[in-house]
Design the sequence.
């Protein structure tokens, strides 16, 4: 047979057709897909022995308990545990990713000092400490430490370090403000107070985010008993959406509603066992707030107000106005009116008794001699040396809140794991350990509940990261300051001391995962308590009972501090979620999935306005607009949002978005007596 | 061939219910899913359309105006259809219905990146890796070794954290016992702080998920398509059911 060109072509053609119907091309496709997915630059998860450990979240004062899955000692997953005083095992998105924090890209790796040209340069620790010591020695004004998370062991060390030499400054706290207002309703100091939520069946909330950020996430929802929630709120927040009953109100009318409810409760005889004088005083204040007058002021109709009052039962209803993550506190008269409802309902009947403390107690700090001030009470331009420790505060403090308090040429020192906004304004920056890279004590909320938990270390801190105890030791050595009570080489050593104090005091209980609570009959050695802390235990101080004979003072109900009506602004600006979300140090980069890749958080520059208002004011969404307030202005894009009340601008802070302090006076962040920060008079103009 | 004929006797059929009355839209499920499945942080320029997110929470509103406006948050993930349209269109068999679990499995190494599956999925529940997976330096140490990272150019979706089932089974075998159904829970179920997500075996009539499916407030999105999703949403609000009949939540339904 002669092989012709035709034969060759037939063979090639037939082969090509046959190949298509053979597995070869599919095999090639499959293999090529595999080959093209095996590149050297793709990360390969590391293997290792599987383990688990307990820890606690350091990102906010809730301090949720954590169970950590480890691979080769590295944390790869965290879940909440339900033994903590505030929690049922839920975690927020930030807590869910806390195990990634040791590798935060903004981690500070060296000491930095600002040069004369304003730039930061790396510096040696000794040089930085010498500069700080020299400033303290030469200070004519106040030397202060800003303690972002009071109640820690290091807080005690700070107090002892500064005793007689300076002041401890506490940043604003909405929770502390609320409790301050509550205490002001007593003629004599009732001691530590708490709102009793254990017996609660109904929660009446005034704009508080009780179904979102109230203590640990899911605290009310995961309760074994059904808790009814009633939300009075101007905007349709997530709590308003999920509450059993949302009562829309005119912005800024919380006081009127609370007094109207108090009026109805008084008529039901809820103050029958009160002192006659107290009852009469309250009746006099509330009498004018009839349901019809409340309706005129707030838009809450008579039937709704009466039905809410009827659901409020003594001993099983609490009324909350804060803590609120989204904005500042209410004005003092509104807060006081709301807390008065708690007095009527008997839900302030339980006080928390601190454990009896020894004179040398490093745990709860008997070092009270040192002056402690709220930041808002610090005189302007009075601080000459300021040491900032805001790493565990859980929120970002606006720099301009501090700037007013500093003397000209004041030295600002930041102890921080990341170069955050406050560090950017400092002259000396000392790196500290990121969460999960060092053992930490986790205090409870000092304004509500004294408790102790321990966070474990799962990664190594940066080489230059300094233990704050070591910082004080080194600085004290230069300045000749010795600490006795809190003398230790490290925070770990202080934690051991604290365990001894707690065991010796023998008061309170130890809550444990998957076990019954233990008392100190079972735990008689500090080592045993430390072991239990490492296994996820949480110490909670004993509860006490409030003295029912205490008398009340309702003076603050009559004060009207709201000055907003003086301004000629036609709209009301409500800010949500700006402060916490702005805190760089508490957010793993994986949170970008929520911030950037979902529609959950409104755009950074978005001002949400009701479509009717947009039409009435001809606010064309495509144009750029500026929101003006008495204290600042910000450029925004208008976004139609049917969930926003007419006449209201709703703005949500995002990590890189508008900050509340751009458009409001930050001094009002959490200082009762100031006008409310929740509602800011504003106007929209074309940019 | 119908699924029933392929299904071995006694094999579980995993399903999920998501209670929209409980979901607060916090996003913890999204973060937990990303952490568990080695999904990297969002790249610069990524958004809710092109980002790789296996579980995405949308806000869905009733289109009314304040104070009658209402919203629910809808965690949207692979609906684990009994008749998955993404499976039939895949030229690479990178999507397979696992008849031993009822899970629609995605096998990334087979994927060519044609994205037919993304077009076919009526729930927009699939994601495409437009970028190589990268983490901040050192953060690779926190990657979950039970699941590999996926390269740029592949599609992916929720597998009900199938690797967790493998682990639970291995543990049970090691301990010489049967695996309890509650030993296997996807990461989002564990992470939900309000307990809105329930997971379990649909073949067990006493499981919480079976009971959830039987509730009158249970519904599936666009049921008329006949894909038979194994995720049921629960809501007591009629408008949610009405909206679910006509479409799935997406960008047009969010705040943005």
Sequence:
């Amino acid at each position: 047979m002669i092989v012709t060109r035709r034969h060759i072509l037939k063979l090639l053609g037939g082969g090509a057709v046959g190949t298509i119907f053979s597995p070869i091309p599919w095999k090639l496709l499959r293999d090529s897909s595999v080959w093209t997915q095996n590149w050297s630059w793709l990360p390969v998860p590391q293997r290792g022995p599987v383990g688990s450990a307990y820890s606690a979240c350091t990102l906010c004062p809730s301090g949720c308990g954590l169970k950590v899955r480890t691979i080769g000692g590295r944390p790869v997953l965290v879940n909440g545990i339900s033994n903590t005083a505030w929690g049922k095992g839920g975690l927020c998105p930030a807590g869910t990713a806390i195990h990634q924090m040791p590798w935060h890209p903004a981690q500070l790796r060296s000491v930095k000092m600002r040069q004369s040209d304003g730039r930061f340069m790396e510096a040696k620790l000794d040089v930085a400490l010498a500069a700080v010591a020299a400033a303290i020695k030469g200070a004519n004004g106040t030397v202060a430490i800003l303690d972002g998370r009071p109640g820690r062991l290091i807080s005690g060390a700070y107090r002892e370090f500064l005793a007689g030499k300076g002041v401890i400054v506490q940043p604003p706290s909405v929770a502390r403000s609320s409790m301050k207002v509550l205490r002001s309703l007593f003629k004599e100091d009732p001691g530590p107070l708490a709102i009793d939520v254990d017996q609660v069946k109904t929660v009446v909330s005034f704009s508080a985010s009780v179904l979102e950020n109230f203590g640990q996430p899911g605290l009310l929802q995961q309760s074994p008993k059904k808790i009814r929630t009633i939300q009075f709120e101007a905007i349709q927040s997530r709590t308003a959406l999920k509450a059993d009953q949302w009562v829309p109100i005119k912005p800024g009318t919380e006081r009127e509603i609370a007094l109207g409810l108090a009026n109805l409760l008084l008529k039901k005889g809820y103050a029958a066992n009160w002192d006659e004088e107290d009852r009469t005083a309250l009746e006099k204040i509330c009498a004018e707030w009839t349901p019809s007058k409340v309706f005129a002021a707030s838009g809450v109709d008579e039937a709704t107000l009466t039905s809410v009052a009827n659901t409020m039962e003594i001993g099983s209803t609490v009324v909350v106005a804060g803590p609120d993550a989204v904005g500042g506190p209410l004005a003092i008269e509104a807060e006081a009116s709301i807390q008065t409802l708690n007095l009527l309902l008997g839900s302030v009947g339980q006080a928390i008794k601190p454990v009896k403390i020894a004179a040398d107690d490093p745990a709860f700090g008997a070092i009270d001699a040192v002056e402690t001030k709220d930041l808002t009470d610090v005189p302007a331009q009075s601080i000459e040396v300021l040491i900032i420790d805001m790493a565990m505060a859980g929120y970002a403090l606006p720099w301009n809140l501090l700037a007013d308090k500093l003397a000209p040429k004041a030295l600002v020192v930041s102890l921080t794991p990341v170069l955050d906004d406050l560090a950017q304004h400092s002259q000396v920056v000392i790196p500290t350990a990121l969460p999960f890279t060092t053992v930490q004590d986790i205090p409870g909320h000092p304004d509500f509940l004294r408790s102790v938990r321990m966070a474990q270390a799962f990664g190594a801190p940066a080489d230059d990261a300094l233990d704050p105890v070591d910082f004080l030791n080194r600085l004290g050595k230069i300045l000749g300051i010795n600490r006795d009570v809190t003398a230790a080489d490290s925070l770990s050593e202080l934690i051991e001391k604290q365990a001894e104090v707690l065991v010796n005091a023998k008061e309170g209980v130890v809550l444990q995962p998957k076990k019954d609570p233990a008392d100190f009959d079972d735990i008689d050695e500090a080592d045993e308590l430390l072991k239990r802390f490492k296994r996820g235990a949480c110490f909670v101080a004993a509860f006490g009972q409030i003295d029912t004979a205490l008398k009340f003072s309702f003076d603050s109900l009559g004060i009207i501090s709201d000055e907003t009506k003086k301004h000629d602004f036609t709209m009301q600006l409500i800010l949500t979620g700006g402060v916490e979300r702005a805190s760089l140090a508490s957010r793993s980069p994986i949170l970008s999935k929520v911030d950037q890749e979902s529609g959950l958080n409104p755009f950074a520059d978005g001002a949400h306005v009701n479509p009717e208002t947009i039409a009435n004011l001809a606010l064309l969404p495509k144009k750029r607009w500026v929101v003006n307030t008495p204290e600042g202005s910000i450029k925004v894009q208008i976004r139609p949002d049917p969930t926003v009340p007419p006449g209201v601008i709703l703005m949500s802070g995002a990590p890189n978005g508008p900050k509340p302090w751009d458009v409001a006076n930050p001094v009002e962040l959490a200082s009762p007596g100031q006008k409310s920060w929740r509602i800011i008079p504003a106007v929209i103009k074309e940019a | 061939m119908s699924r029933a004929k392929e299904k071995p006797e006694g094999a579980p059929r995993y399903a999920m219910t998501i209670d929209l009355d409980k979901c607060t839209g916090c996003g913890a499920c999204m973060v937990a899913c990303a952490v568990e499945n080695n999904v990297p942080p969002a790249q610069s320029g990524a958004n809710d359309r092109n980002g790789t997110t296996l579980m995405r929470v949308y806000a869905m509103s009733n289109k009314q105006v304040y104070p009658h406006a209402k919203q629910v948050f809808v965690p949207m993930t692979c609906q684990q259809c009994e008749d998955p349209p993404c499976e039939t269109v895949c030229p690479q068999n990178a999507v397979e219905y696992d008849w031993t679990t009822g899970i629609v499995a995605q096998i990334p190494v087979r994927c060519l990146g044609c994205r037919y599956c993304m077009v076919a999925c009526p729930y927009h529940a699939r994601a495409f890796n437009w970028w190589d997976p990268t983490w901040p330096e050192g953060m690779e140490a926190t990657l979950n070794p039970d699941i590999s990272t996926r390269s740029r150019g592949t599609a992916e979706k929720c597998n009900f954290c199938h690797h967790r089932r493998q682990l639970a089974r291995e543990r049970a075998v090691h301990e010489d016992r049967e695996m309890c159904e509650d030993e296997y829970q996807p990461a989002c179920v564990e992470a939900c702080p309000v307990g809105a997500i329930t997971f379990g075996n649909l073949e067990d009539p006493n499981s919480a998920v079976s009971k959830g499916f039987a509730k009158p407030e249970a519904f599936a999105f666009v049921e008329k398509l006949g894909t038979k999703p194994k995720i049921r949403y629960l809501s007591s609000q009629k408008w949610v059911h009405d909206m679910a009949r006509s479409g799935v939540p997406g960008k047009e339904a969010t705040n943005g």
In short: Chain A has a mean pLDDT of 83. Chain A touches chain B through 77 residues (CB under 8 Å). The two ends of chain A are 89 Å apart (CA to CA).
